[in-house]
């Protein structure tokens, strides 16, 4: 099965990660997720999505190691936003955890005033873990295909 006498592998019958397309195609994605994680700890990015049928926009917030989506209103949506504005500022959160918890946040009201808006929180460590798991699965699948091909091509000896 690709072995010469003395136990040495024949050239071309060993899977090399450095020659794997799946490996090299996945590196930019991992670098992006890691950069976004570090960036979210330093800078707060807020994207406001304005809808025609609402006076208050929705917000996608990138800060403190998380992506957050806040639904600021509960009524009258249309499917296409009217406007989008993005703002980047230095993050004011100095004691943010590097590993924040994922979750859903319910709206909290004080009389007629909303204190916290409803929305979800997706931490970067979870994104990196999910991406790494999918990437590893793809590489293992490529390795399995490679081994199967090598077995089929190996001379019966």
Notes on the protein architecture:
This protein is of the alpha+beta class and 157 residues long. It has one domain. The chain is 33% helix and 27% strand. It is built from two helices and eight strands; from the N terminus they run H-E-E-E-E-E-E-E-E-H. Helix 1 packs antiparallel against helix 2. The longest helix has 30 residues, at 124-153. This is DUF3592 domain-containing protein. It comes from Luteolibacter arcticus. The chain crosses the membrane at residues 21-38, 122-141.
Structural class: alpha+beta
Q: Rg, please? A: 24 Å
Q: Residue-averaged pLDDT, rounded? A: 76
The helix content is 25-40%
- How many domains? The number is 1
Counting DSSP E segments of at least 2 residues, the number of strands comes to 8
Instruction: Characterize the overall form.
Output: elongated
The topology string of helices and strands comes to HEEEEEEEEH
Strand portion? 25-35%
Please state how the strands of the largest beta sheet are arranged side by side.
4-1-2-3-8-5
The biggest beta sheet is recorded as: 6 strands, antiparallel
Q: What is the overall number of helices?
A: 2
State the low-pLDDT regions, or none.
1-9, 74-80
Terminal CA distance reads 9 Å
Keywords: Membrane, Transmembrane, Transmembrane helix
Protein name: DUF3592 domain-containing protein
Transmembrane segments: 21-38, 122-141
Organism: Luteolibacter arcticus
């Amino acid at each position: 099965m690709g072995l010469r006498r003395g136990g040495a592998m024949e050239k071309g019958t060993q899977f090399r990660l450095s020659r794997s397309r799946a490996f090299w195609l996945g590196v930019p994605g991992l670098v992006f997720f890691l950069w976004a994680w570090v960036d979210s700890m330093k800078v707060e990015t807020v994207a406001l999505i304005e809808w025609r049928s609402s006076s208050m926009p929705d917000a996608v917030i990138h800060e403190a190691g998380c992506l957050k989506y806040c639904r600021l209103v509960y009524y009258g949506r249309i499917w296409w936003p009217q406007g989008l504005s993005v703002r980047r500022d230095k993050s004011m959160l100095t004691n943010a955890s590097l590993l924040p918890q994922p979750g859903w946040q319910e709206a909290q009201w004080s009389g007629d005033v909303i204190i916290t808006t409803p929305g979800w929180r997706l931490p970067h460590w979870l994104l990196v873990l999910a991406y790494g798991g999918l990437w590893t699965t793809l590489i293992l699948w490529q390795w399995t295909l490679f081994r199967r091909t090598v077995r089929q091509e190996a001379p019966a000896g």
